[in-house]
Design a protein that fits this description.
By secondary structure, the protein is of the alpha/beta class. The chain contains ten helices and eight strands. Strands 3-2-1-4-5-6-7-8 form an eight-stranded mixed sheet, sandwiched between helices.
Length: 318
């Protein structure tokens, strides 16, 4: 990265996030960014922060439960304070890595929203909106996406649910008691949230204009990660077995690729939600480009955040 500053990453404690953190921390002096690790406070956050410090990085742990928008707002305030005080260098990149797949779509976040949509999408929209004026250009926002939003031969074979888009206010509503928990419903909710990330990336670039480049990274299919930790034991066992197939993506392989998206000059030109699958710039499916849905998502997001006492405001004059 031409201007080495500070990188904020969510979900830094395990798997993809942890390996991205360590790859950034392991860069040579002069190319190593300061790191803001935003994740659930506790032993795992402390452990990865200590590992990164051991590699020479300046690290700040910021405890945050992404299932609570109040926590997200508090984390953003902490980041702004660190930047104002000069405790870290200018904010050059934000990596929206954290993600879950709730096994029960009836489960709600602290703000009453369907948990997968709340953590994977709404929390990051809140965090980015709160920190927009804190970036120093040139800066990057890298969102972690997924190809699960559409079906292909292999995903159909493995019964991976594709997105079933609806109005975002409906997507944010937990399922009723009449809908029992199941992997299909959970998979649809996950794929909807990932499609929302693509729509958001396109609209975010329109809103922020010059100075901040927005892109989306797909790490490849990584079976056996903690993403499906709430899934049935048999599903988890099958995923672990599939993860041993040669060529399948792993956090250890994909983590450094995510770090490169945030830091390397190779990717500095990416804008407008450009979609990178591991190391390949890839065109998304036509369904993932829809200006009407993108505008509606932006409006609905503001409504949902305001309903939780938050707001989606980007001050483009600053």
């Amino acid at each position: 990265m031409t201007e080495t500053g500070t990188v904020l990453i969510t979900g830094p404690t395990r798997n993809l996030g942890r390996h991205a953190v360590l790859a950034m921390a392991d860069r040579p002096d002069g190319l190593r960014p300061d790191l803001l690790l935003v994740g659930r406070a506790g032993r795992d956050l402390t452990a990865v922060a200590d590992e990164a410090r051991g590699l020479g990085a300046r690290v700040h742990e910021i405890g945050c439960d992404l299932a609570s928008l109040a926590d997200v707002r508090a984390a953003a305030a902490t980041v702004r304070g660190l930047l104002t005080d000069g405790a870290v260098r200018p904010l050059r990149a934000l990596v929206a890595n954290a993600g879950i797949m709730s096994a029960d779509t009836r489960q709600a976040s602290a703000d009453g929203y369907e948990l997968t949509f709340a953590v994977n999408y709404l929390a990051h929209a809140q965090l980015i909106g709160d920190l927009f004026t804190a970036f120093t250009a040139p800066a990057r926002v890298v969102l972690v996406g997924s190809n699960t939003y559409h079906a292909n031969f292999w995903r159909k074979l493995l019964h991976v649910a594709e997105a079933e888009w609806a109005d975002p206010v409906e997507l944010a509503r937990p399922a009723g008691d009449e809908q029992p928990p199941g992997m299909t419903a959970s998979g649809v909710a996950y794929s909807n949230a990932k499609l929302a990330i693509l729509y958001y990336a396109h609209e975010l670039q329109r809103q922020v204009g010059q100075g901040i480049n927005v892109s989306v990274f797909e790490p490849g299919w990584m079976p056996g990660t903690a993403l499906g930790r709430d899934a049935p034991a048999a599903f988890q066992a099958m995923s672990r077995a599939l993860g041993r197939i040669p060529g399948v993506s792993t956090p250890r392989r994909s983590g450094p690729l995510l770090a490169a998206m945030a830091l390397d000059d190779q990717w500095s030109h990416l804008r407008a939600g450009a979609f990178v699958v591991k190391t390949k710039l890839t065109e998304v499916q036509p369904v993932a480009h829809d200006p009407d849905r993108e505008r509606r998502l932006w409006e609905a997001t503001a409504q949902l955040l305001a309903g939780a006492g938050a707001s989606l405001v980007l001050d483009t004059e600053t």
